[in-house]
TrEMBL record, chain A:
Chain ranges of the Phosphomevalonate dehydratase large subunit-like domain: 4-404
Domain of life: Bacteria
InterPro entries: PMDh-L-like_dom (IPR007506)
Protein name, per record: Predicted aconitase subunit 1
One Pfam family it belongs to: AcnX
Record GO terms (molecular function): lyase activity
CDD domains: AcnX
Keywords: Iron, Lyase
Organism lineage: Bacteria, Pseudomonadati, Pseudomonadota, Alphaproteobacteria, Hyphomicrobiales
Automatic annotation (TrEMBL), chain B:
Protein name: Predicted aconitase subunit 2
Keywords of the record: Lyase
Listed InterPro entries: PMDh-S-like, PMDh-S-like_dom
Phosphomevalonate dehydratase small subunit-like domain sequence ranges: 33-114
Single GO term (MF): lyase activity
Keyword Lyase: yes
Domain of life per record: Bacteria
Length: 416, 159
């Protein structure tokens, strides 16, 4: 397919709007040709997963765009970085690594990106609306935007998310187009009267991620979620065990009011039943230690803890009142943290071991005081990646069990 | 110097994802390799334990494989490998790959190093063949495959 460019696209490509826009458009055109897009389309926002320092090339790219006078053309949020800029000293990093890691974050801000530093941009004022065309990086944010909101993005990543932001354009292909958004594979939840527990949503997410491949999954029989955070957890898990960028939950998500709508009138290519045993099996694989193991820390908020999640956690902390000094790390967006501080919601909570972490996440950088013990989490994504990333042992459980365990000093879990 | 008498050189045309000239020895993978988790950018070694090319080194070769694969982080790994000089001299693939194209173009933009990325028929190429990639007047890629181990003219093509 020949890629058709608008006059403005051409003007960018020809350097009439500066060297940074020209470079971004050149990269975008090559990418669009490679995916077979026929044209580019306007986007209304972008989310950049470029602030984790992985090597010099990544930083050189952003610096060059800054030098060329580049600015993002649409409201653009930033994913987590390697550093908590709000709580300096929390991340333990050699100075030689700290300087480029910090610079990577500030250089993005010099391009006009918003200093959100959150993996949950959908919790900020930059949340897109249904049907909006966006170019997002970060797997959990992508699946949330497509599935829960009904905004439209492909899985953008390294460099290309920023090229979309710098040009305000994205290739007209994949999930940007209605015809590519219908379901292909059906997962029937065969659990009678399922309780909408957090772990149920994580378990379903793990399973659809593993079994969907590149087919869009549709879930039927899912109980109504308590809130969107349960769908956040489902999507994050599905994008962890697989490459899911969009799921439909019949009667729950906006493009799946009915089974027929989810499949756009087509029949599923395959149907898979999910039983209680399947869910228990998927969840059991997240825990590397048995009940009773001594606990070193709790980590919640992967993806970043929403204000609603804080409102569930704080009364729980007061009621259980863990007093052993076991740290309870909560990863959250800086905007959410500011709101909580303005509300006075965190006053006195450090006595229970509460340590809020902003701008980053406990599994991508060195924050945890102790890496030799067991860390408990309610996040399927954290449980999956943390052992490989930072070398800890993990116990997965509901949030309530994580707090109870912090109070008694070892892993306790209620029967699910 | 004596040259082997029987040299078979076959030309094929291709499409550039990133245009450039390169020459080197073919390193052929029948299975796509993800650069992220598959290549060590510091050395060019293949580190993916599930890949048949494990333990080989891609630096300076003409890497030949059906397609790209895997995470978008492969763009960063390829760009970093090109910066460090541990990347292939060029890549031939049967199908275009957006992730590798982005990595190669970013490296060209930043470091003025052009690692040609060509989409062409890869049938019949085996590891060890000498390959030269040149640019036709019309912008297409010419891929010359020599099945005898004859040194090519350009000095940087030795393994």
């Amino acid at each position: 397919m020949i890629l058709e460019l608008s006059a403005r696209d051409r003007s960018m490509l020809d350097g009439e709007q500066g060297s940074s826009a020209a470079a971004a458009m050149k990269i975008l055109v090559a990418f669009s040709n490679a995916v077979g897009a026929g044209s580019l389309l306007d986007i209304s926002g972008s989310h950049i997963d470029g602030c984790l320092y992985h090597g010099k090339a990544g930083l050189d790219f952003v610096e060059r765009l800054v030098e060329g006078g580049g600015r993002v053309q649409v409201p653009t949020t930033l994913n987590v970085g390697s550093f908590d800029l709000i709580h300096p000293g929390m991340v333990k990093m050699p100075a030689a690594e700290e300087a480029p890691a910090r610079r990577l974050m500030t250089a993005h801000m010099e391009l006009g990106c918003q200093a959100t530093f959150t993996c949950a941009p959908y919790q900020t004022r930059f949340r897109p609306a249904f049907g909006e065309q966006i170019a997002w990086g970060e797997s959990n944010a992508i699946v949330f935007a497509n599935s829960v909101i009904g905004a439209r993005t492909n899985r953008y990543g390294d460099f290309i998310d920023l090229c979309c932001a710098m040009t305000g354009r994205a290739p007209a292909w994949g999930l940007h187009l209605s015809e590519n958004r219908r379901g292909r594979i059906l997962f029937e939840l065969a659990v009678p009267d399922p309780e909408p527990s957090d772990s149920l949503f994580v378990g379903v997410g793990l399973i659809i991620g593993q079994a969907s491949g590149d087919r869009i999954p549709v879930i039927s029989g899912l109980p109504l979620p308590r809130d969107e955070d349960q769908l956040k957890a489902l999507g994050a898990a599905a994008a962890t065990t697989g490459a899911v960028a969009l799921f439909h939950a019949v009667g729950i998500t906006p493009e799946a009011r009915t089974l027929d709508e989810a499949f756009d009138g087509h029949a599923p290519e395959e149907t898979i039943r999910i039983t209680r045993a399947d869910i228990n099996h998927a969840l059991s694989r997240l825990s590397t230690v048995p009940d009773g193991a001594p606990l070193a820390a709790v980590s919640l908020g992967t993806p970043h803890f929403s204000h609603e999640e804080w409102m569930r956690l704080l009364p729980m902390l007061r009621a259980v009142a863990p007093g052993r000094g076991i740290p309870i790390y909560i990863n959250t967006g800086r905007a959410t943290l500011t709101r909580l501080q303005e509300e006075g919601a965190l006053v006195g909570m450090e006595a229970f071991g509460l340590i809020p972490v902003a701008d980053t996440c406990t599994y991508v950088t060195s924050i945890l005081e102790r890496l030799d013990g067991v860390v408990m989490t309610n996040s399927g994504k954290w449980a999956h990646y943390a052992p490989g990333n930072i070398g800890v042992s993990v116990a997965f459980a509901e949030m309530k069990d994580c707090i109870r365990s912090a109070a008694v000093g070892h892993v306790v879990r209620s029967a699910s | 110097m004596m040259q082997p008498v029987q040299t078979k050189s076959v030309e094929r045309t291709g499409t550039f994802q990133l245009a450039g000239e390169a020459a080197g020895q073919a390193l052929v993978f029948s299975q796509a390799l993800s650069f992220w988790g598959g290549i060590d950018a510091e050395t060019g070694d293949v580190i993916d334990h599930s890949h048949p090319g494990l333990g080989q080194n891609v630096a300076g070769s003409i890497l030949v494989m059906p397609s790209g694969r895997g995470s978008s982080s492969s763009s960063s790994v390829l760009a970093e490998a090109i910066r460090r000089g541990t990347a292939p001299a060029g890549i031939l693939m049967e199908r275009p790959d957006p992730i590798l194209a982005v990595g190669a173009i970013v490296a060209e933009f930043l470091y003025d190093i052009r690692m040609p990325l060509v989409v062409c028929d890869i049938a019949g190429i085996v590891s060890g063949n000498r390959i030269a990639i040149t640019i036709e007047a019309d912008g297409r890629a010419i891929v010359r495959v020599q099945t005898e181990n004859v040194p090519l003219k350009s000095p940087e093509c030795s393994p």
